[in-house]
UniProtKB/TrEMBL annotation:
It comes from Devosia ureilytica. Keywords: Membrane, Transmembrane, Transmembrane helix. Coiled coil: none annotated. PANTHER family: EXOPOLYSACCHARIDE SYNTHESIS PROTEIN. This is Exopolysaccharide biosynthesis protein.
Length: 208
């Protein structure tokens, strides 16, 4: 039986093939600016999916914050209807191509499985008119995820992944699920920040 080709399977295959082409040269790493140029400076939704997926990959200290600010920059460009231009401090960050390719190939496999359950529906939640609220939501969430607090970005980022996946697959029902997951993640993130604040105050008080 031939697998049904959905928008998300086409997009994820595009990501994987683009990264493989980039690896055909002598480069072993790709900058975030290079990634934007590779996938297209106006491919806001596609790049939001890519960076949210990359945020699930463990990285060195500061990696999560860099990806969070990248996510924010892409969302700001979407909000303004402009091409994506990353600030130099973010755009020059280099990511290993082999890791990106392996991750993209896994994404293609997972997308093929999820596409069996996700389908175009409630399209009014995924049309061009949704770009404005989508961008505002991503900006707010990415700013929270950029806070230098351990594990703060894990659950909200899962929600952003679901939303990005569903937006590309024209699945409004999936967008609703993603918004719910993001809300839960933000609640957990706020609880972590409040807990860290109280622990810090308690530590300061014990030293007085």
């Amino acid at each position: 039986m031939t697998q049904r080709v959905t928008p998300i399977t086409r997009y994820t295959r595009r990501i994987a093939s683009s990264l493989r082409r980039a690896a055909d040269g002598d480069e072993t790493h790709l900058t975030l600016t290079g990634l934007v140029e590779l996938l297209g400076p106006r491919a806001h939704r596609l790049l939001l999916l890519v960076v949210s997926l990359f945020n699930m990959i463990p990285g060195p200290p500061g990696y999560g914050g860099t990806i969070a600010w990248t996510t924010c920059a892409i969302a700001v460009a979407m909000l303004l209807g402009k091409q994506i231009r990353l600030p130099g401090i973010i755009g020059k960050r280099r990511l290993p191509l082999d890791l990106m390719i392996r991750a993209s190939e896994q994404v293609v496999t997972v997308a093929g499985i999820l596409a069996r359950f996700s389908r175009p529906r409630l399209r009014w939640l995924t049309g061009a008119a949704a770009n404005l609220p989508y961008a505002i939501l991503v900006i707010g969430v990415s700013v929270v995820m950029a806070l230098p607090v351990p594990f703060i970005n894990a659950i909200p980022n899962v929600g952003l992944c679901i939303i990005a996946f569903s937006m590309l697959n024209r699945d409004g029902a999936g967008v609703i699920v993603g918004i719910g997951a993001t809300a839960v993640g933000l609640g957990v993130a706020i609880a972590i920040v409040v807990g860290a604040f109280h622990l810090g105050m308690a530590a300061v008080g014990s030293m007085g």
